[in-house]
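Question: I have long wanted to understand how a fold can be written as tokens. Here is the record:
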Amino acid sequence: MPIDFNSHVNFLNTYNKPVQSNLVQQTHISSQPVKDTFTKSVQTSDNSVGKDFEGIKIERKSFGTIKKTGQEAVLYTITNKNGASVDLSTFGAAITSIKVPDKNGKIKDVTQGYSSVAPYEEAPVGHAGGTIGPCANKIDNGTFKINEKEYKLECNKDGGKTHSHGGSDGFDVKNWNAEVLKDGIKFTYNKKDMESGYPGNVKVSVTYKFDNDNKLHIKYNAESDNDTLINLTNHTYFNLDGAENAEENSVLNHIVELENSSHYTVNNEIAVPTGEIASVEGTPFDFREERKIADMINKKSNQLEIGSGFDQNYCVDGYDGKKMIKIAEVKSEKTGIKLEVETNLPGFQFYTANHLGKSAQPEGKDGKRYEKRSAFCIEPQFYPNAVNTDAFKEKPILKKGETFYLKGLVSVSYTHLRAHET
């Protein structure tokens, strides 16, 4: 079943000022078995540079030495002619910083992260900013079948009961190769057959481009020589008040609207979907109109208790695998920055960083440890454990000879982070 999925995350400023920043990402998978529900994308050359990218400056510096391999991690900074910038690390093909202006024109770093590679490698709490794969979210019992063959993965979560985010040796802890383009950075990684338990030699790339309208375009591409699982996403933690706000509960005054999510997947006691899809009506999960996180997160709900806060897969209303649907809008009253997300994937994880603040966690780039509920994530995805759940019809299966393809677009795309002022 070829899949063509896209999503956008938009940062906007809620004041009348010029456009300041944009991150756009569009996703296309050509992968599923059984029948086609998506159209394949037409790829364009990475070598063409339009006026939107004129004057882009790319800087390179060491991000430190990776202890396990002795390799150097490299940090690239893409700066456009307006002075907005994005920092990207070869380790994890990760976003380590997105800097956008607030309502007063002051540049704010709105993503959590670290100032060198060591914390990412030695204390990888929360997968901060990393490219997640081969399969994002949970796989129950760490087992799945493709073509009647069972595969067993590392169970790195829930006391050895689930496989999560590609395991402890997932894509977010790999040092990717980097190619500097005229208008961005292309990261590549070649996963070997049965690496981390997943079948297939898989060639994966993630391309980031940052233009003069302050849009960061993200394009994923994956091909395999065997049928396998692929469900790539990015795990950036956002605090729209500014990442320096690392204190516990510092994200709770953010205003959230999930206007096209009238249902969510119900979790069992270890936060694996049961297959039941429930209405948000009359529950703390109803964000179809704007609500502060603080007004909802402490309401009585066994699902909130299981997740220790919001950590739930939402279903996208009107999903057909083709059209872009706005799934999330998050605002900071303090800075005027607004995050919007659009996708044509069936679901997304809304997470309020409930498990940050562990004693082993290192200090962040502002010299503070990121505490519980100091950020949020919006992660477009296939439903968790979809490969093992009959009720979930869309499966993250990449067939041999087909292509997983995600391409960022300016106005509608996979992760379209758009920061501008209206």
User: Anything to note?
Assistant: The two ends are 40 Å apart (CA to CA).
